[in-house]
């Protein structure tokens, strides 16, 4: 699997490609695997052993055949849904595996486009806005630049040949890895154009290991557009497979005013017209911004090493989040905001699931990685989901308290990410035992 495709040369150049941090971590310390080796027989191991035994005997033809299949032969759904009130032009870039039959298309409000990808697919999905193609499907007249869309444009082609132009909110996927896991994230590293949510279609796999993974842990949402923001206090988002019993942990401090103005003024793609004599009052708090207000990341706008984490700044220790990244993280805590916060924004589940990417979900941004940190730690320590965890996951009071207290003491997110990694390794290998 090529980890570094030549994406940097055109557009979307601000982030590293794969959560390499996580892959390196796996190769380097892999502490769980070591401790497993020294364990005595536990219930999960026994169940796994029996499962393998049965599979080997060919009792589950389906099970054994899909265990033997290369991920390239597996077909996974990749649905793209438009909840926006305007037409959008989703674009799909394939970096590994077999991509969908089209790499760009128009999608009317309320429509879903059911594409499929191979089980080893790696790529990204974003939405182009305000497009007007020269001739349907055609690119620019020879030698001319330009853009057919206000955001996300890829060389004026309806079908994208490569990456698009910043800013665009991205949904990124690595469907399979050598650890049999799927990595995915919402990325604002190259900027933000529209709200995005990702739904892991775990139930559609028909694989009970995956179907047991709760929607409140797998479905991140990022809403940085105030008109689509639900009021503070809302605790579940039905569009994302959760309900009052199993609420999705949501970010609970961003007000509509904050979400309207989160983008640092100079990073707005099209700042509002200067009032009167052309002199801004500074700060610019009183100038009304448009509802659709695409925001470039500091890297996309200025292309400086310190913002793009390149050159002398190419390590987590030497690349700090910019104002853009900290603002983005406040609006979308589960999203990736600069090249080195993949540890606080990468979701990892056992491989085999397809996904739905929803543009313009309404509700509030999710805050999954911060809220369930303690439960994930407990999961990692005990090796199974306890009744206490299930109780807490259903405790709306607890989830509200934790979601509201974002600036209180939080577990180290680097640490939480390591735990998430371990937990999914565990779930992937032993099955969920309730
Ligand atoms: C179900 O998913 C798990 C996790 O990815 C995988 O290990 C297992 O092989 C899958 N089972 C079947 C029957 O495909
Ligand atoms: C551009 O697209 C966005 C998102 O679909 C929409 O909200 C906005 O009204 C469009 N702007 C124009 C000028 O058409
Ligand atoms: C809430 O969601 C869970 C998990 O998806 C489901 O089992 C349960 O039936 C739902 N409850 C209601 C009241 O819809
Ligand atoms: C999330 O919801 C599921 C049911 O869909 C539940 O079993 C689970 O315990 C909940 N939360 C966590 C942290 O697992
Ligand atoms: C729910 O959580 C709150 C706050 O953490 C706690 O006080 C309460 O006892 C919990 N309720 C249940 C039923 O566990
Ligand atoms: C969080 O920040 C808000 C405003 O910035 C402040 O009023 C509140 O007390 C803080 N909460 C905690 C738990 O620090």
From TrEMBL:
<dbReference type="Pfam" id="PF00314">
    <property type="entry name" value="Thaumatin"/>
</dbReference>
<dbReference type="InterPro" id="IPR037176">
    <property type="entry name" value="Osmotin/thaumatin-like_sf"/>
</dbReference>
<protein>
    <recommendedName>
        <fullName>Osmotin, thaumatin-like protein</fullName>
    </recommendedName>
</protein>
<keyword id="KW-1133">Transmembrane helix</keyword>
<dbReference type="InterPro" id="IPR001938">
    <property type="entry name" value="Thaumatin"/>
</dbReference>
<feature type="transmembrane region" description="Helical">
    <location>
        <begin position="43"/>
        <end position="62"/>
    </location>
</feature>
<keyword id="KW-0472">Membrane</keyword>
<keyword id="KW-0812">Transmembrane</keyword>
């Amino acid at each position: 699997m090529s980890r570094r495709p030549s994406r940097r040369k055109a557009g979307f150049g601000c982030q590293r490609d794969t959560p390499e941090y996580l892959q390196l971590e796996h190769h380097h310390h892999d502490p769980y695997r070591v401790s497993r080796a020294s364990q005595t027989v536990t219930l999960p191991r026994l169940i796994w052993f029996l499962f393998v035994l049965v599979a080997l005997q060919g009792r589950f033809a389906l099970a054994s055949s899909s265990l033997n299949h290369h991920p390239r032969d597996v077909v996974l759904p990749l649905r793209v849904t438009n909840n926006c009130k305007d037409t959008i032009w989703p674009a799909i870039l394939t970096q590994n595996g077999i991509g969908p039959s089209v790499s760009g298309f128009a999608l009317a409000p309320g429509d879903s486009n059911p594409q499929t990808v191979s089980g080893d697919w790696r790529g990204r999905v974003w939405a182009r806005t305000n497009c007007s193609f020269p001739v349907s499907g055609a690119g620019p007249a020879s030698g001319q630049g330009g853009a057919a869309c206000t955001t996300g444009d890829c060389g004026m082609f309806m079908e994208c040949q490569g990456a698009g132009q910043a800013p665009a909110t991205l949904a990124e996927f690595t469907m399979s890895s050598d650890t049999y896991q799927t990595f995915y994230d919402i990325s604002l590293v190259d900027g933000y154009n529209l709200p995005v949510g990702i739904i892991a279609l775990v139930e559609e796999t028909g694989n009970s290991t995956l179907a047991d993974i709760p929607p409140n842990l797998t479905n991140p949402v990022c809403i940085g557009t105030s008109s689509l923001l639900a009021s503070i206090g809302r605790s579940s988002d039905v569009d994302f497979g959760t309900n009052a019993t199993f609420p999705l942990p949501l970010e609970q401090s961003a007000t509509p005013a904050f979400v309207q103005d989160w983008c640092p003024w100079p990073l707005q793609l099209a700042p509002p017209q200067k009032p009167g004599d052309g002199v801004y009052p500074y700060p610019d708090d009183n100038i009304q911004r448009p509802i659709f207000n695409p925001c470039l990341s500091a890297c996309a706008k200025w292309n400086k090493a310190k913002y793009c984490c390149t050159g002398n700044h190419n390590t987590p220790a030497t690349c700090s989040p910019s104002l853009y990244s900290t603002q983005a993280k406040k609006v979308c805590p589960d999203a990736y905001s600069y090249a080195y916060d993949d540890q606080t924004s990468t979701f990892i589940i056992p491989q085999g699931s397809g996904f739905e990417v929803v543009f313009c979900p309404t509700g509030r941004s999710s805050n999954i990685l911060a809220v369930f940190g303690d439960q994930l730690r407990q999961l990692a320590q005990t090796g199974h989901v306890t009744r206490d965890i299930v109780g807490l996951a259903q405790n709306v009071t607890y989830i509200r308290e934790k979601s509201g207290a974002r600036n209180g003491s939080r577990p180290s997110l680097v640490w939480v990410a390591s735990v998430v990694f371990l937990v999914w390794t565990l779930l992937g290998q032993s099955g969920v035992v309730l």
